[in-house]
Amino acid sequence: MADIEVEIVGAEGKLWSGTAWQVSAKAGEGEIGILAGHEPVLSVLKPGEVRVFAERGKQPERWQVEGGFLSFDSNHLTIVVDDAVAGARPAPTAH
User: Which of 81, 80, 7, 75 has its CA nearest to residue 35?
Assistant: First the structure.
């Protein structure tokens, strides 16, 4: 299966660049997953987690973001984010 080229850019510059087999994020219409061959898309990102699955069977790279947008075309994904925190996961909710 083909991979996609991914660039994640924040206010400070490039946060991550490489290939991945899947990327998921919280988009304007809900959770979006991008795989190779996905239709072209341009979407606003909502606050939440961006996950880049660079290697099958391994944990994804993660960023908690405050918003931004993503653009995907011809197996190239660019994500521009606001206030990204690498490796962050949402705090567990109390029950």
Answer: 75
